[in-house]
């Protein structure tokens, strides 16, 4: 349970008394300054421009790779660039060519070598620089490719300050070097030393587009692990460390559940469908879904069809009409499909939209699940015990819910301590950027209320430290007024699909009490709504620790290094203010820290199996052990 470290940052500068202007590396290029003029601008043939394909990618980056980012989020653009290159090697493996993909990431430079057939030497430049050029439109060459639109490698080329590609085939090679999509050199010839066929790509994401960024290798390792699980027999090497899976999705689920599985992992692998499943004693349900090796974080048709098929398979096996919520509570599963023509909602491929695949996935899943339980009777018995236990807990919970709702009605129709916003997650594009700040006390809330964006930013104010919910039943939420109100504000009472905001942002002071409240909130989410964390919905707000200013300039600094650098630049006579809490930052200053330049640290877990042991150690009843650990490490730091 940890928030990922942020990449290297620089202090924010403003003129004295003025709000800092938003800094967006590429957006400034995308949105030219609008100037008022006395009369309408001339609009004729001379104003019509035709962009090259790579120029269009640089100008409209979001159309091709989604968000930009600085590397602190696994969906940031530099990881999309990496994925596009690795996908090419994976596609070669799927077609039976090459069993190794080597990746090296050092100092912001990425190198990927596959051992497939190699790009045809005579078409090397076209394949990496001209959109709609490639072999992935040909089913004879690529049947189950992720990169079907012929854009991926071109986007990497266009968005890299340096891009080098080398194709090797039958002892000959072709090489091309680009800078920001512009060809700088190319050559062909025979190799002096024998090498295996394949393709080598080296690139550096362009700082003009991405700004100051840094690869988080934990995010990359997770993606590489998934590639290994989805491609049994493929070896992937990341900076020398190898990843290989022999049992596919079975290995993935084993890694995620550890010893928490209630029964042996169920596993099925067909020609186009593969899945694995089990149950744990955790709350909620957790799924990992993939299409042609691509992780679909937002699910899609294949996942909903799998859920429906699993429900029918269990009902058919037990010959009882058990409710879906009782069957799926505590379930963890992974499903992967191979499709010739996947339709994704965007270039980043987070959600599958094919409607024609539903019926066969439902049917194949239903038959496979029923058959597996017939062959594993002990697992079937434990499954039924889990269903009956879920029924009992649901009945008990419904009684508690009724009492809580009756009590809430007596208080007020609106949720106390919630300052809501206009747009929510269900409002489509308007609600995509919605967020709710979970703040510590009324003083911090006061600073944020007057400086927030009332259209997309909501605030829920906590009284202080919430109850430690570790090891307690879900019914305990309904007996705690503050946590109940927070759950209702988020809209997650029934399940996380009802979430009302795109992001849940924990905004506490940067002191020991603030860290404690942060841990209590994360314990609450990981205990009852862990999918919010695993789906990337929970963040921690970064706010400045220091303000350094003189008569002409003000800088806000997020750490001691930035503070010392600012003092050095501005002179020793500059005034340094240490913010002890969010409430000390005035609304006039606070607005810029939750606006376009907001710094959010995503909360993530490496694997689900570590969650129980982390919560037990930090939030359980092992105070002496935890105290000894803290004292030992504090002493070590001091020494």
As for the number of domains, it is 4
Provide the residue-averaged pLDDT.
82
- What top-tier CATH class of the largest domain fits best? Alpha Beta
Structural class computed from helices and strand pairing: alpha+beta
Give an account of the 3D structure:
The chain has 639 residues and is of the alpha+beta class. It has 4 domains: 77-243, Histidine kinase-like ATPase, C-terminal domain (Heat Shock Protein 90); 249-394, Ribosomal Protein S5, domain 2; 415-543 and 587-608, Rossmann fold (3-Layer(aba) Sandwich), CATH 3.40.50; 612-639, no CATH class. Helix content is 37%, strand content 20%. It has an 8-stranded mixed beta sheet. A 7-stranded mixed beta sheet has the order 1-24-20-19-17-18-16. Helix 2 (53-59) crosses helix 6. Residues 1-39, 136-144 and 146-150 have low confidence and may be disordered.
Sum this structure up briefly:
The chain is built from 22 helices and 24 strands.
Key structural traits:
639 residues, alpha+beta, Heat Shock Protein 90, Ribosomal Protein S5, domain 2, Rossmann fold, eight-stranded mixed sheet
What are the SSEs and their pairings?
Elements: E1 2-3, E2 12-15, H1 27-30, H2 53-59, H3 62-65, H4 77-94, E3 100-106, E4 109-114, H5 124-129, H6 152-158, E5 160-169, E6 172-179, E7 182-190, E8 198-205, H7 207-210, H8 217-230, E9 235-238, E10 241-243, H9 249-257, E11 266-269, E12 273-279, E13 286-291, E14 294-295, H10 301-318, H11 324-328, E15 331-337, H12 358-375, H13 377-411, E16 418-419, E17 435-440, H14 441-449, E18 457-462, H15 475-478, H16 481-490, E19 503-507, H17 512-528, H18 530-534, E20 538-542, E21 546-549, E22 553-557, H19 560-570, E23 575-578, H20 587-590, E24 599-604, H21 610-619, H22 623-638
Parallel strand pairs: 3-9, 13-15, 17-18, 17-19, 19-20
Antiparallel strand pairs: 1-24, 2-22, 3-4, 4-8, 5-6, 5-8, 6-7, 9-10, 11-12, 12-15, 13-14, 16-18, 20-24, 21-22, 21-23
Helix pairs in contact: 2-6, 4-6, 8-9, 10-12
